[in-house]
Structures are given as structure tokens and as C-alpha cells.
Amino acid sequence: MKLPVSWRASAAVAVASVTLLTSGSIAGAAPADVDVAAAPDIPVANVKGHLGQLQSIATANGGNRAHGRPGYKASLDYVKAKLDAAGYTTSIQQFTSSGRTGYNLIADWPGGDANQVVMAGSHLDSVSSGPGINDNGSGSAAVLETALAVSRAGYKPTKHLRFAWWGAEELGLVGSRYYVNNLSSANRSKISGYLNFDMIGSPNPGYFVYDDDPAIEKTFKDYYAGLGVATEIETEGDGRSDHAPFKSAGVPVGGLFTGASRTKTAAQVTKWGGTAGQSFDRCYHSSCDTTSNINDTALDRNSDAVAYAVWELSE
User: How far apart are CA 210 and CA 120, in angstroms?
Assistant: First the structure.
């Protein structure tokens, strides 16, 4: 997740329209009686395996996977190879920021209605001060494993599925903004929803749901209600991640978050466990954001929630 604007002044530079079956929301949204058991199970061991690879890439490339650094391109190459082998049509979008070349990776699953595109994405870059395993290896790995689960299942959704990994988010949403700004108005209107996953394995986690599009929000809340896990509205990162350019362009957006530098309250500990008076992620934007900086339960639940929403909103 990027820093607030005042901290990054030096930097350059889903789902369908809301029409619930009963009160005006997204076509294909989850019904009132949610069968959580029907959601595909995403093996957390697989997600952690991707995180291990991202950690190894960072370790071999100066300790980070930041924009314009070799660790970022190596991370992108790793994700792309997995998707190519799974039958995706992948493309790399190149841009320039802060005098360095950046890359977005876009992966389309064959089939589905090309006039109704459900997107799920995450930023793949880290800050320069660390490997960025929670921020945002966690979201990137969960989206990757969900995409691979689509392939394993031979899933044939009604809507078209597209997955994305964004570059230079930490410099001000540069990659996702470039993608949105370079879409024609016709192609932009075909995106029925964008789901964003930025930090979903925080070590002292909360369970936060974006409250942007009502139907997407309901889908995630229904999933967590089925698990008996309370959620709260996400406010810490509001407008600070890659959903923002999509929202500004009129695309319905939603997503999940487990918290960054804000402090967990005693009331939140009662809901979720963990440690009161401590940040959700004490290693946020630091060198200690390694594979040791992940809560496996949060990562597991959120990875399954990614897949649940992708299936529900694209069927």
C-alpha cells in the first residue's frame, strides 16, 4: 500500500453496475443464502509457496522488489510464467515513472462475456526498504493462486475474468492509473467490477472490507458471515491503493485489507484476537516485512475470500 500523498510528494508522477435482485445491485451477486462450502478452497500452502519465491527474489536482488529494480521484474517474470503455463493470455504493459521503467502484468482467462469483465488485482511492487511480503506479496500471491485455481477447475464463467498485477503502486498508484487512463471509454465500460487486494496477511490482523460498491461489499461480508468472522469497514487505506483509479473512472470496486500502521484496539481484539495497542503490521514498509511477517489464518481466510468473490461475481 502506498504512503499518504504528503509522504510521497517526491514520487513521479467485479460485479456489474449496481442492481441487486431485490433492491438494485450487481447482477450475479451472492444470494441471501450463501453456501460458503461451495467456494473453491485455496490451499494456503500454495499461497505461502509464492510468498517464499517472492522472498527469495528480493533476497537475491538487494532485499527488495521495488519499481525499477531487478527484484520487481523478476517477481513479474515469476508470476507470468505460472499464468502462461496455466493457459492464460498474458500481456505486459510498460510505463515510465521516476526515470525508471515499470510494468503491469495483465492475464485474461479465455471465454466469458467480453462485455462483462470481472477484474481482480494487486500491486506487485514493494518499497525499496524491504521485500514487501505482506505489502503486497500477500495480495499478489492470493490473486495468483486464485487465477491458478480457475485453471485447475476448468472454470467457465458467464463473465470474462481478468487478473492484474500492478507496478509502482508505492509511488502513487502509477501502474494502475496508467492502465485505467489508457483504456478506451468503451473498454472501461466493459469492466463490471474491480476487486483489490492490498495487504491481506498482516501479523496482528483485522478483517476489513471496502464499502465502495454495495454488491461487492455484500459478497465479502456474506462470505465472512458464513465463517462467523466479524468484519469492519476499511478506512485506513481508503483511496490509497489500486482501486482508486478504477473508482474515479466509474468502475464498481471492492476489496479486503488486514491493516497497516494503525493500532489494534481492545474492542478489535475481542472480535479477532491478537494484541491490543500494537499495529496491525509493525513491519509495514520496513525491512522486517518478510515471510515471518504473515498471519497464516488471515492469509488463508482472505485467499479463500478472493476466490469466493471471483466465482460469485463472474458466474
Answer: 14
